What does this fold into?
Amino acid sequence: QQQVKQSPQSLIVQKGGISIINCAYENTAFDYFPWYQQFPGKGPALLIAIRPDVSEKKEGRFTISFNKSAKQFSLHIMDSQPGDSATYFCAATFSGAGSYQLTFGKGTKLSVIP
Amino acid sequence: DSGVTQTPKHLITATGQRVTLRCSPRSGDLSVYWYQQSLDQGLQFLIQYYNGEERAKGNILERFSAQQFPDLHSELNLSSLELGDSALYFCASSVDPRGQREQYFGPGTRLTVT
It folds into this structure.
């Protein structure tokens, strides 16, 4: 059972454009939603995270939009740059018995072309 | 650099063998999480330790085990290896499961079973 569904699988955006990656979750107990960026040969790096009590969080060119009623959240990358080319993972977690294990989406491979 | 270290970076071994992967968390982090990343399953949570004790188990095979030592480093033991165990294995650390939820990933160990 895939608890976090991510789309699209791959995305090609021109330099300066907006990249949008969407995720949907099923478990209403989830209460923390991070996004990770992974370059080839590297570990996932925490990019930005949101809790369901806010609808939007912005850090630099990265924005998370959160829709609690629809159980959806998305990552927007403004002014996308070639250096943003990487695989992006959404994730979700909840506080269960003191563990914040992450449930990941399948990932989106972003390519930003000059 | 996340501050989480993993050794070895690469590991090639034969079916039926046993290997040990090592992880040192960020200074001050008490929790260590292990994740497996494969092409077909994506990133999956295996097991979590907090301050030396097992806190949560995910999709971890019985052939796999882990422990966390008094200095907080952790080891993941994989035995009776099969071809399907070939994957990237990441550990992540966090401060305290009851406090901040951010998890910081190490660079991973690429395991190839031949």
Remarks:
- The two ends of chain A are 38 Å apart (CA to CA).
